[in-house]
C-alpha cells in the first residue's frame, strides 16, 4: 500500500474517496445520491434552492448550482462547513459498508485530495493546501478500524472458482482476532435478493475432502452449494474451524476416543474441550463486506441461528439441511440432536 494516496476524480482507482462518488446516503428519510449533493445543499436555507441541489442529476450540477446561488448562502456557512463535511463523510461510509472496508484497506496511508482548484479541502495541487477532506477521511478511517464489524475481518482478494455446481466468486478474508483464513463463496447477484440463501460451513477435511461417512459435513457441503446454484444467488461461508473448533489433530484424537465408545460430545470433553468451541462473531464482518444483513440460513444448528441474531443479522428463514445419514454416522447425528440441540426431523434421524 502506498504511503500517500492521492484522489480526485470519482472514476480513478481511489475515486470512492471523492465526494462526487455515487454512494446513496439517507439522512432523516431523505436520500442523497452523493455526499457532494448533501454538502452543497446545506449552504442554503431556502427550500427551493435546497431541493434543486438535492435532486440534481449529477454532483457536478449540485456544485454548479451552489455557485449560481452563492449570494443566498447562509451567513454562518464558513463557521459550520467543516462540521457539515465531517458529518456527511461519516454517514457516507457508515451507510455503505463496502466503501467502509475499502477505506480501511488504505491502512495508514496519508489520504490527499489532489485538487488544483481547491487548497482548502484539497492540497491545491502543489501539496501546500490544507487537505481538510483528506484529514476527515483519515479520522473516519481510524474510528472504523476500531469498530464492529470493520475490526472483525480483513478482506484480501477475490477470484473466480469454477465448480461442478457452477462458477462462484471466491472472497478471501483474514479473521483479525485469530489470524485464521476464511472464504466466502458467492454465487449470482446477491444484491438483487432481499434475503440471500447462505450457509455457514465449518471446515471438515475428513468429510469435505476425504469423503468420510462418519459425519454429515461433506454431504451438507455438497447439498448447500447445489441449493445455492438452484436459487440463482447465495453465499457459502467456508470457515476454518475444524473439529467444531478443536483443530484437525485433536479431531483425530477425538475420533480415536469415539472408536473406543465415546460419543462426539464426550470425546471432546475427555480431551478437555467444550462440546463446541466455534465462534461465529466474525461472520458479521464477512457478511457486512458483502452487503448482507438479512438471510435465509441453511442449518440444523440453533447455535448458528442465535450467533447470527446476536451479530445483528436478520434471519428471515431457517432452511433445514438434512443430508447424508448412514450406518457410520447415525449415532453421531443422534448425539448432535440429543446433546447439542440440532434440529432434525424425527423421520430423518430414525431412518
TrEMBL record:
According to its UniProt record, this protein's enzyme class is hydrolase
Please give the coiled-coil regions recorded for this protein: none
Could you give the cofactor binding note from the entry? Binds 1 zinc ion per subunit.
- Give the NADAR domain ranges: 7-145
**Cofactors:** Zn(2+)
Which pathway is it part of? Answer: Cofactor biosynthesis; riboflavin biosynthesis; 5-amino-6-(D-ribitylamino)uracil from GTP: step 1/4
Q: Which GO terms describe its molecular function?
A: GTP binding; GTP cyclohydrolase II activity; zinc ion binding
Q: What does this protein do?
A: Catalyzes the conversion of GTP to 2,5-diamino-6-ribosylamino-4(3H)-pyrimidinone 5'-phosphate (DARP), formate and pyrophosphate.
Name of the protein this chain belongs to? GTP cyclohydrolase-2
